[in-house]
Amino acid sequence: MHHIVDPATGVPAVEYWQTVTVAAATCVDANAVATAAIIKGRSALSWLEDLGLSARLVRVDGSVTVSGAWPAEGSGER
């Protein structure tokens, strides 16, 4: 069960993403967007791309998806 509560339902968010990391203008913005992405679940990736934000999303099965300018896994970029 996720520790983030979906405000629309009042129950823990559905476990689609294990973690979401976002690059944003401020730490507060990054944290807010990452939390919202956890709640958005499957639709988070397109939402992040619409916002133009780079992010790394890890599914509960461990698979990794990136958006924006976030370096691809194994690219050697930092």
Describe, in plain words, how this protein is organized in 3D.
With 78 residues, the protein is α+β, with helices and mostly antiparallel strands. The chain has a domain at 17-64. 28% of the residues lie in helices and 22% in strands. It is built from two helices and three strands. It has a three-stranded antiparallel β-sheet. The protein is globular, with a radius of gyration of 12 Å.
Short description:
With 78 residues, this protein is of the alpha+beta class. The chain has helices at 27-40, 44-51, and strands at 17-23, 54-59, 64-67.
Draw up the topology in text.
Elements: E1 17-23, H1 27-40, H2 44-51, E2 54-59, E3 64-67
Antiparallel strand pairs: 1-2, 2-3
Helix pairs in contact: 1-2
Numbering strands along the chain, what is their spatial order in the largest sheet?
Answer: 1-2-3
SS field, number of helical segments: 2
| % residues in beta strands | 15-25%
**Ends distance:** 32 Å
Rough outline: globular
Strand element count: 3
Order of helices and strands: EHHEE
Label the structural class.
Answer: alpha+beta
The proportion of residues forming helix, as a percent range, comes to 25-40%
Unreliable stretches: none
Main beta sheet: 3 strands, antiparallel
Radius of gyration from the alpha-carbon trace, in angstroms: 12 Å
- What is the mean pLDDT? 93
